[in-house]
């Protein structure tokens, strides 16, 4: 069974600092990996999708890397802003059936 | 972009009653939808896969007679929590398959 772990569980930084969020998974035979943002009481917003053949994806201030062999992914957020405060979830696609295994998330607070 | 609408966004019901949650794909057809449940401070856990025109497939440990899923059309899947109990209080989120996955905004269920 795939286990997805996110460290740290919570993070508080001053505005402008870069953020590094970690995700690890136990079974390296994954299909894709996706990072989501979840605001309190809300649904999920997709941030970045990394396909199994890729090593990273970038969108604006966000960059996500994937190392399947070591079972790790890292989400970098550059020059954090208060609006980046949210919970960030890492999810791994099981094989190619679009079923996701989620981590518990990292809750980020960016202080103005 | 693809939109998934989930309704209601929150519901309070009394113990022993049933509650229906709807998940609609607004601008695309989805033969497959997924239902997830999220307890506070925990990961999203896949409950079941909803397949249009056929029976849903449930994950291990999920009671199919308690969580009834119907996917009667290509744009609508419903989850009915039957004889709800306080322990069923949770955040339920659906997703629809239109590569990549698109998520609804979730339903907060509180059973009193």
Task: Note down, in words, how this protein is organized.
The complex is a heterodimer of chains A (112) and B (112). With 112 residues, chain A is mainly β. Chain A has no helices and eleven strands. Chain A has strands at 4-7, 10-14, 19-25, 30-38, 44-51, 56-59, 62-67, 72-77, 86-94, 99-102, 106-111. In chain A, the strands form two sheets. In chain A, strands 2, 4, 5, 9, 10 and 11 form a six-stranded mixed sheet that branches. In chain A, a hairpin with a 4-residue loop joins β9 and β10. The mean pLDDT of chain A is 93. Chain B is mostly beta strands and 112 residues long. Helix content of chain B is 0%, strand content 54%. Chain B has no helices and eleven strands. Chain B has strands at 4-7, 10-13, 19-25, 32-38, 44-51, 57-58, 67-73, 76-81, 90-97, 101-103, 107-111. In chain B, the strands form two sheets. In chain B, strands 2, 4, 5, 6, 9, 10 and 11 form a seven-stranded mixed sheet that branches. A four-stranded antiparallel sheet of chain B has the order 1-3-8-7, with no helix packed on it. The mean pLDDT of chain B is 92. Chains A and B meet through β5 and β10 of A and β4, β5, β9 and β10 of B.
Rg over CA atoms of chain A: 13 Å
Rg of chain B, rounded, reads: 13 Å
Q: What oligomeric state best describes the polypeptide chains here?
A: heterodimer
- Distance from N terminus to C terminus of chain A (CA atoms, Å) equals 41 Å
| Unreliable residue stretches of chain A | none
Distance between the termini of chain B: 37 Å
Q: Pick out the low-confidence regions of chain B.
A: none
What structural category do the secondary elements of chain B indicate?
A: mainly beta
Helix content, binned percent of chain A: under 10%
Please report the two chains with the greatest interface, counting residues with C-beta closer than 8 angstroms to the partner's C-beta: A-B, 19 and 24 residues
Indicate the percent of residues in helices of chain B: under 10%
Helix count of chain A? 0
Q: Average the pLDDT over all residues of chain A and give the rounded result.
A: 93
Shape of chain B: globular
- How many strands appear in the DSSP assignment of chain A? 11
Envelope shape of chain A: globular
